[in-house]
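Record copied across here:
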Amino acid sequence: MEEKELSELLANVKIDPSLTSRISQMDEFKLPELMVLKTDVEAQLEAYFSVLEEQGIGMDSPLVTPDGYPRSDVDVLQITMIRKNVNMLKNDLNRLLQKSHVLLNQHFDNMNVQTRQRTSDNGGDSDDRPIQYTIPFAFISEVVPGSPSDKADIQVDDKLISIGSIHAANHSKLQNIQMAVIKNEDKPLPVRLLRDGQILTTSLTPSRDWDGRGLLGCRIQEV
């Protein structure tokens, strides 16, 4: 391979230096910065998976022929470098999620303290049962077949009233949904929906254990 071709290949498969720099600083990030970084890392991983898919290659597909020679039908060097980067980014993503979980717990603990404080300041009983919200704040615009949302019988055009402890009064432009979903990966979340004028309750378990991407497999848009 000529030097120019190798240089172009390296440029196409290397991790964005700005992303690498931010990953190295993640321990100093606050929760909103971590959420943005998570999205960017996942986008980089998706880009790599798309390249592998174009070549008909997975992370474990053999790169040599039965007699031990490098395969000629795929770009072995490119795939090897991409696989290395994918494994590195997966490790970074796991570390990022662990830090996010810690900050999420702190975030929701602070929200609960503030709620109790407001209730106390208003002369209420902080031990009262939580308010059952009935006002939708978002709607479901897409549900992927076989996804966690599909299994929870969530349908397109359903109006979202609450998911876990997130509702119309605290969703913060839907950002808190993402936080709640990450915090509760592989744990059931109670969901209240408005469908055809009726309020329905279901249980949604965010998970990566399905054939698609993401933890929910649905698209949520603010009303």
User: Anything to note?
Assistant: Residues 3-121 form one domain.
